[in-house]
Backbone:
């Protein structure tokens, strides 16, 4: 135990001497137990001395990594096992790791004598953004994460150049009516002003044209109409809710044609087929 304590004391004494010796060239920042964050400009001989005393990278631990690959993380850190641990620029490493697509925030700690610990907060996919013929996962903040090859049915689809930045506010308003929100399959941003919502299916579902303002009120109004009158059970092409004092709907073309044909048949006069007559 005395031998171990002596080694630890020697290491910290060396750290103090290195910090003092490189004070003119070292940028100081708040750090754990007062250790300077940046030893990158320290004299190579001093770094070699620290490594000889055991202060070299031997263990790299990561917490919170689910989607970020090991290879991407190591490439961002750009460090090798056995490198002097004091040569690792913590600030630069943090910047590089946070530039990775899945990483929202990163905290990096040197744990002397020989370990670096990384705590990651990764981004959570919130919606699927369709643009230019491809799909991109975006988070709640509207940040694009990564492109994906196919649509993910578990995520709502959003369309429009500025859709990611406004999606969270939209889905928060829609969430007030849980049953109706569960039927939303896509949201298309129209003219960077308002939304068209597609229920049940993006290709063939009912399009709900929402107003520019007070989306929550319009959505509640639709939910009430559905509860009281089952309006969404009708074969509709779209429901226009942009006006407060009226509701505009259009029946699906096939249903309208069928209804017109049925009405014509009912009104057509009966023809009595009698014997031929010369006129």
Residues:
């Amino acid at each position: 135990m005395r031998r171990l304590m002596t080694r630890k004391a020697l290491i910290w004494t060396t750290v103090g001497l290195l910090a003092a010796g490189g004070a003119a060239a070292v940028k100081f920042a708040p750090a754990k137990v007062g250790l300077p964050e940046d030893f990158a400009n320290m004299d190579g001989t001093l770094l070699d001395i620290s490594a000889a005393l055991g202060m070299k990278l031997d263990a790299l631990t990561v917490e919170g990594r689910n989607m970020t690959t090991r290879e991407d993380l190591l490439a961002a850190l750009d460090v090798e096992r056995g490198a002097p641990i004091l040569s690792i620029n913590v600030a630069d490493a943090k910047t590089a790791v946070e530039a990775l697509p899945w990483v929202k925030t990163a905290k990096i700690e040197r744990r002397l004598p020989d370990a670096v610990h990384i705590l990651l907060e990764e981004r959570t996919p919130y919606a699927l953004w369709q643009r230019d013929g491809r799909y991109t996962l975006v988070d709640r903040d509207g940040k694009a994460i990564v492109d994906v090859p196919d649509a993910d049915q578990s995520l709502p689809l959003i369309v429009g150049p500025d859709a990611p930045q406004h999606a969270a506010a939209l889905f928060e308003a829609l969430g007030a009516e849980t049953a109706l929100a569960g039927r939303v399959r896509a949201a298309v941003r129209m003219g960077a002003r308002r939304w068209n919502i597609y229920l049940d299916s993006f290709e063939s579902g009912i399009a709900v044209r929402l107003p520019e303002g007070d989306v929550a009120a319009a959505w509640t109004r639709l939910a009430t109409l559905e509860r009281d009158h089952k309006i969404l059970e009708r074969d509709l092409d779209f429901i226009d809710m942009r006006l407060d004092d009226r509701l505009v709907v259009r029946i699906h073309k096939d249903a309208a044609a069928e209804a017109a044909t049925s009405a014509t048949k009912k009104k057509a006069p009966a023809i009595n087929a009698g014997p031929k007559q010369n006129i």
Remarks:
- The chain has eight helices and twelve strands.
